[in-house]
Structures are given as C-alpha cells and as structure tokens.
Design goal:
14 helices; 15% strand
Length: 320
C-alpha cells in the first residue's frame, strides 16, 4: 500500500470526479490519501469528500500562505485555532467562518468530528509578490506554535522564501517541530539546514520524474527514512502525464523514479515510504483499508506504472 501524503480532491479540477479518482487510486494500490487544507472557502468540500472515505482519506488543518490577505488573515487564523483546539462550540465556529465569508453546516460539524493528522499546508509563498509578507510570517509562526501545542506534525509549503522560513524555524527551535517539506525541489543543503531546527522529511512528487529536474541528484543524498511520497494532485503530474491533471493514482510513477534513484525496487520504496508516513502522521492501516486495496496487494503487477497507464479508466483529458 502506498500513502499519498499531499493531495487536493476538493480542488475544482478534481472535485467533479473525486469519487472516481479515489477509486482509481485504490485500484493503483494507494490505500491512504491525506488532503492538505487551504482556507475556510475550500474546507467544507474537503470535509465532505473525506467523509465518503473513512480510513482512506485523512485531513490536515491549516491556513495556506497563498490565501493570506490583509483583510482575512486574522479571522482565518482564529478559525483554524478554534477548529484545532476544539474549544469553540459549533455556533462559535460558524461565527468565525462567517467572518471569513464561509459559514456552512460542514464547518459546524468540523468542530467535533474530524481527526487532524497535521497542521498544513502552511508556510510562506512570495512567488506572486511580497505584498502580504508580514502577515504570512505571523500566520506561520502562530500555526507552528499550534502544531507544537497539539503535538502534530507540520506540512510546509515554501516558495521563494527560504531565508525567512529559516529565521522563523530558528526562533521556534524550542518547539521541537517535526513534519515534512511539501513538494521539495530544493538542494540537499536546504534540507540539511531545515533539519537544524526540527525533524523534517521531504515530500517527493512528480517533479522528480521531470527530465531536467535536479531533484534526483539531491534525492540520492537524502536518507530513505526522510522520504515521503506525494502527488499534490491535481497539480504537478509526473511523466508521462506532465501538463495534465494529476491524480493520486499516479503515485506509483513517483515511487518508480525514487526506486531508480535509490537503486531499490518499487515494492521496497512502497514499504519504506508508507512506514515513514504512518509514523509521521500517526496513521493506522485499518482492516477496511486492507480490504479496499487487497486486490492490488495480491497482484503486484498492478503496481507497475505501465499497468496503470494502460488502464482506460485512468485516462484523463488535457487541461486547457
């Protein structure tokens, strides 16, 4: 069984086809999938899809840096804290969501029922500019403190802001943070530096399969016990689907490339990365999950990426 440690079934590209996409992932041997949270606008759809697949889809909770604005950051952050701590009543959570222009029944129910496996995706993103740089840093610090208080791992999104991240991680060294660096494409030196301030794994996705990506060389030096697999679906599809909509079903393509880089079999990478994910996110493989992926587990050839590529149900239209 593979674990996709970062996906977004609630994204508008995947949402209309979410149930079928989950089934395709299960058919490909991906038995657990973790959805990264973004903000209160997307969260109700995330809960709704997760509810359909208990023991298969798990949820993070967090406020994504790309959603931060000067007007919304405090209300959104307050809502994350209320949901995470479970201290607010459903009514209070609804009021918080309303301030963020998103009050729904799903948001009310979220106070009591979900188990969050991580605080994420959180971080810094200056790729589109630094207009809300200070707000992003404040939001990140607060969520790192929240994760430490709840003894949860963090899922960090980072673009064009490594130095600011390291400053914050250094300031938060006393929190003894653990987690993973989502969609990691940086150097080994960056990986090593991040681990001076906490215990961080790397999330390896479709980029590792790209022809001119330097990530494969970096991956050679990263210990196996620090590697997680992810898709970031519907984004960053691996070769041979690059440029098209990504799905959790394509995770074996990532595993195949990691196996090639590490000189191991796909099954060995599957076992190692699944163990890493179960440990970091404190997940338990349920009998129900075993049942849903049992056919795949008993037919090793179905884990072969070429087999997945040849399955008609996994063909998807080009994104325009």
């Amino acid at each position: 069984m593979f674990v996709d440690t970062h996906t977004h079934f609630y994204d508008e590209w995947l949402r209309p086809d979410a149930e079928a996409a989950v089934q395709r992932a299960l058919d490909a041997g991906v038995g657990m999938m973790i959805q990264a949270d973004v903000d209160s606008h997307e969260r109700p759809a995330m809960w709704e899809i997760g509810d359909r697949f208990p023991g298969v889809i798990f949820q993070m909770l967090g406020f994504y840096p790309g959603s931060v604005t000067a007007d919304n950051w405090q209300q959104e952050l307050d809502l994350v804290h209320a949901l995470a701590k479970g201290a607010a009543s459903a009514e209070q959570a609804t009021k918080g969501a309303a301030k963020a222009e998103q009050a729904t029944g799903a948001e009310q129910a979220a106070v009591a029922r979900p188990r969050f496996v991580a605080i994420g995706e959180i971080g810094l993103d200056y790729h589109e500019g630094e207009q809300f740089k200070e707000e992003q840093k404040e939001v990140l610090r607060s969520q790192l403190e929240l994760a430490a208080a709840l003894n949860l791992p963090v899922n960090i999104h980072l673009r064009d802001a490594w130095e600011d991240l390291f400053t914050i991680l250094s300031d938060c060294r006393h929190l003894h943070l653990r987690g993973n660096l989502h969609c990691f494409t940086a150097s080994y030196e960056i990986y090593e530096r991040a681990n001076r301030y906490g215990d961080f794994s790397v999330g390896i996705g479709g980029v590792v399969t790209f022809k001119n990506a330097s990530l494969a060389k970096t991956l050679e030096r990263i210990p196996l016990e620090k590697i997680l697999l992810e898709t970031d679906a519907p984004y960053l599809a691996p070769v041979p689907f690059r440029g098209r909509r990504n799905e959790s079903a394509y995770l074996p393509y990532v595993a195949a490339k990691v196996a090639e880089v590490k000189g191991l079999t796909i099954s060995q990478i599957e076992d190692i990365t699944t163990r890493n994910a179960l440990q970091l996110f404190n997940l338990t493989q349920s009998p129900e999950t075993n049942k849903k992926t049992g056919i795949i587990q008993n037919q090793g050839t179905n884990k072969n990426p070429e087999t997945i590529q040849n399955q008609e149900t996994n063909k998807i239209p080009e994104i325009t």
